[in-house]
Amino acid sequence: MGRSRIxxxxxxxxxxxxxxxxxxxxxxxxxxxxxxxxPVEASGTTAVVAEQELKVRLAHRxxxxxxxxxxxxxxxxxxxxxVWLEDLDLDPDQGTKDLYERDIRTLVLPVxxxxxxxxxxxxxxxxxxxxxxx
Length: 134
What we know:
With about 130 residues, the protein is α+β, with helices and mostly antiparallel strands. It has helices spanning about 45-70, 75-90, 95-110, 120-134, and strands at about 15-20, 25-30, 35-45. It folds into two domains: about 1-70, no CATH class; about 75-134, no CATH class. Strands 1-2-3 form a three-stranded antiparallel β-sheet. α1 (about 45-70) runs antiparallel to α2 and α2 runs antiparallel to α3. The chain is elongated and about 55 Å long.
């Protein structure tokens, strides 16, 4: 009999690995709202520090899952943007995060800010994508 599936919004066991005398990595797999298990890792000078940092990152992901579960077809688009920007905090590349945040706030949000999620259809998104591509 196989292992039971990790529930959405939870993580599996935490494993630590020593990379060098003062470098440790802690890893776990987290099941995101889309059902996909994704690796999450953090580093530190000791196994305990790496594990603590990993738990902080996992706690943040758990909050995002809770936020995502609050979204529904009648949620305003700016609420989805808020949740998505929180998710970007997980990206270690600050430059990428800043670029994505700028683009969502200046290019996408002004177009959809007065819609609820169920109103944002392909027929509304396609013209925006065509304009941005041009």
